[in-house]
Design brief:
About 30% of the residues lie in helices and about 15% in strands. It has about 350 residues and is of the alpha/beta class. Strands 7-6-5-4-3-2-1-8-9-10 form a 10-stranded mixed sheet, covered by helices on one side. Helix 4 packs across helix 5. The radius of gyration is 20 Å and the shape is globular.
Length: about 350
């Protein structure tokens, strides 16, 4: 069974009649202590023009009126912001919880204790291998960093924080995936998020794209995903970079700009983390008020996207009704064409198995 088709124009509203932005992504810094060649946000060792603590507070003050329930702090490496817990505590005053995406290296016992105090709802730790050597191969991390990440995850679990491990599935990591699942199970994490390669940021061109995208090897990926969907523990989650996965091949409802949006480190606002291109930028919070940006038609453009514009193999697919051509942001990253068919479709790969 797969989900019934739903109206992708439907939005959730607050009692005041405004759209309800239940979850807001916030890239609080572009600074990072690693230099991953596939970094989606092109993080760097330094960052200029970051929103100040006071500017962040002013933005948070507006979020209750938007129906915000959770802020997803990301980067760069968000734990490099020394005021992160201060901002989380400030949001907590409004009943807004926090989630963090981190590489896990800065997690210390003291830092974990502080995070547990300030409304942290979930922690996603990026780790791209089941051994120090395999993780270094993908993330250019030191061998010693692997143990730091594992110890950080253990401390978070001991503090009662829900932990998700995140790993990119690529040609260079596919043979390590089942060992990674076993490692995560032994560690006791709550879930694993398997990320599909999306050529954006540092990974748009060059060596990373050559090493990480599957090209004509999608049959191997399909066979692996078929195994993973049957894993009971930890919970397995696939992100939009994979597109619809078996057996249902349904794609989540696009809520870009209608139930979520993304704030960059310098105040640029986008409808979604999957649409970080100038083509989709709505504006900047230092130049236009947030509530004005919310009402800009560009904010909800992708949630109102007419899927009948999609051309190519998707239109003839039996699952188009529930998939609707998969994530348009991922499609745009791969093809540069918003109306193209999703190019890395696992259902098409499954047809090659028969």
């Amino acid at each position: 069974m797969f989900p019934l088709y739903f109206d992708y124009h439907q939005t959730v509203m607050t009692t005041s009649g405004q759209r309800k932005y239940s979850s807001i992504g916030w890239g609080i810094t572009r600074r990072c202590n690693l230099s991953c060649p596939h970094c989606y946000t092109s993080a760097a060792k330094t960052s200029t023009g970051e929103l100040t603590t006071e500017e962040c507070r002013e933005i948070i003050d507006l979020m209750p009126g938007l129906g915000a329930e959770n802020i997803g702090w990301t980067g760069g490496e968000p734990l490099l912001r020394k005021d992160l817990e201060e901002l989380m505590r400030y949001a907590q005053r409004y009943g807004i919880t926090s989630s963090i995406t981190t590489n896990g290296i800065p997690l210390t016992k003291r830092r974990v204790a502080k995070l547990a105090e300030v409304g942290l709802r979930a922690l996603q730790i990026s780790l791209d291998g089941s051994t120090p050597e395999k993780n270094r191969n993908i993330r250019r991390a030191r061998l010693a960093d692997f143990e730091l990440v594992i110890n950080g995850a253990k401390m978070c679990l001991e503090a009662g924080l829900p932990v998700t491990l995140a790993m990119i599935i690529s040609r260079d990591t596919i043979d390590d995936v089942m060992d990674y699942v076993a490692m995560a199970r032994n560690l006791g994490v709550n879930s694993i998020r398997f990320c599909g390669f999306v050529p954006h940021g540092d990974a748009e061109d060059g060596e990373a794209r050559h090493r990480l995208e599957f090209s004509d090897h999608h049959r191997e990926l399909y066979a692996l995903v078929e195994r993973l969907v049957d894993v009971e523990s930890p919970t397995i989650v696939f992100d939009a970079g994979h597109g619809p996965v078996p057996p249902g091949y349904s794609c989540h409802q696009c809520n870009a700009g209608t139930e979520t949006f993304y704030i960059s480190d310098n105040g640029d606002v986008y409808p979604c983390t999957g649409l970080l291109y100038d083509r989709f930028k709505v504006g900047n919070l230092r130049l236009r008020p947030l509530l004005e940006l919310i009402d800009d038609p560009k904010m909800s453009e992708m949630a109102r996207y007419d899927h009948s514009q999609i051309h190519g193999h998707c239109r003839d697919c039996q699952y188009f009704r529930v998939c609707r051509g998969a994530c348009r942001g991922a499609t745009y990253a791969h093809t540069g064409d918003l109306n193209a068919s999703f190019p890395v479709c696992l259902f098409r790969a499954s047809l090659l198995e028969t």
